[in-house]
Design a protein that fits this description.
- This protein is mainly α and 45 residues long.
- It has two helices and no strands.
């Protein structure tokens, strides 16, 4: 919610930066979650 308020008060360039950084962070967290899931679900012989 705070991020949304900061975006509303920011200029166009800052809005773009927040959107890009937010997307990048979400992608990194998503990749990390998938990597952790695959590592734990891989059975060891």
């Amino acid at each position: 919610m705070l991020l949304l308020v900061a975006t509303l008060n920011a200029g166009p360039l800052q809005k773009l930066a927040v959107l890009l950084l937010g997307h990048t962070l979400a992608t990194l967290l998503d990749d990390r979650a998938h990597g952790t899931f695959l590592a734990h679900s891989d059975p060891r012989p």
